[in-house]
Design goal:
By secondary structure, this protein is an alpha+beta fold. It has helices at residues 2-29, 91-96, 105-116, and strands at residues 43-52, 57-69, 76-88, 128-139, 148-158, 161-174, 177-187, 197-198, 203-217. Helix content is 21%, strand content 46%.
Length: 219
């Protein structure tokens, strides 16, 4: 009798374990909520102009998390940028800005180190940046633009400084993903960042940067 009870008890716990594992797998396989940023495929590109005998640079960066919705009561969202991931003159960045040729690995590493350093982005102290979207407004169609236009307004925090930010984006569909892209202009000095320069300013980069977002969102 006791043997039968023990057997039934073992079967009960095995069945319970199977149910728990199955439920856990089901939860893990659920897709993220609509509007969640696919950080593996989304990118940020920054065009850095030159001053004096300096060089133009294309910078590529990633997001750590984000969500963006364009209609309904939850319209808005937040984008969190991984500043330590931003790298200068990657092949992808140079292609994005149609810059000719390649940059050798040593030069890439040096430019990226200068950009990450305490004199510029200071990523050790400010490892992330954030765009909080407070308002989303649909815009009329524009000739030559395939997709829906939206105006995003909110606050952009970079280098520990928060500023209002507004930008226009285009939203379309690519391979089953919601694709959102747009750009805005910013000045480094507005965020207490000193543009890199050397040799008494004979070599350096411009204060004004052009920032492009290329995001893929969960439909």
């Amino acid at each position: 009798m006791w043997s039968g009870v023990a057997t039934r008890s073992r079967l009960f716990w095995i069945a319970l374990l199977v149910c728990v594992v199955s439920a856990t797998r089901a939860v893990a396989q659920e897709p993220p909520p609509p509007g969640t940023v696919n950080v593996a495929h989304s990118r940020v590109f920054v065009f850095v102009g030159k001053k004096g005998a300096g060089h133009e640079h294309g910078v590529e960066g990633r997001l750590t998390a984000g969500e963006l919705r364009f209609d309904g009561p939850q319209a808005g969202g937040k984008l969190l940028f991984d500043m330590k991931s931003f790298a200068a003159d990657t092949d992808a960045a140079r292609r994005f800005f149609q810059m000719p040729g390649k940059t050798d690995a040593d030069t890439q590493s040096q430019v990226t180190a200068n950009m990450h350093g305490a004199a510029v982005l200071d990523v050790a102290k400010h490892p992330s940046a954030e765009f909080v979207v407070r308002a989303v407004r649909a815009l009329p169609p524009r000739q030559g633009v395939a997709g829906n236009l939206f105006q995003l307004d909110g606050e952009f925090t970079l280098h520990g400084v928060k500023k209002p930010l507004g930008m226009t984006i285009v939203v379309d569909s690519v391979n089953g993903w919601v694709h959102a892209y747009g750009d805005f202009t910013m000045k480094q000095t507005d965020f207490s960042i000193k543009p890199f320069s050397k040799f008494l300013g004979a070599v350096g980069v411009t204060d004004e940067l052009r920032v492009y977002g290329d995001l893929y969102l969960q439909p």
